[in-house]
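Q: My hope is that you can spare some time for a protein that puzzles me. Underneath my words sits a plain record pairing an amino acid chain with its backbone structure tokens. Those tokens are not coordinates but codes from a learned vocabulary of shapes. Thank you; the sequence and its tokens follow:
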Amino acid sequence: QVQLVESGGGLVQAGGSLRLSCAASGSIVSINAMRWYRQAPGQRELVASITRAGDTNYADSVKGRFTISRDNAKNMVTLQMNSLKSEDTAVYYCNVIVLRSSGLFSEYWGQGTQVTVSS
């Protein structure tokens, strides 16, 4: 089994910053893609993703403001969020694709962390 623990959400004023972290533990050979999604009422959005090699992709809505990074040795992914806007308010979920000892890939989700941006 694999466990994901997220941290770093909270309440911040518009224009402020937050840093989300997600640490994976358990039966992990390696982690392929690591992603952050967010869920607002009625919609889910892929915010950012990063490959094991460090290639990144961002939603247009966060480009230039958010930065995703990872530490392969610690099986951790972070999302640095700057210049936050009220429309960034959502529950943020960590998502990883894990290579297990069986040789199969499995997908796991974090428990979600609330980010609220007040205007």
Notes: The chain is about 0% helix and 60% strand. The mean pLDDT is 96.
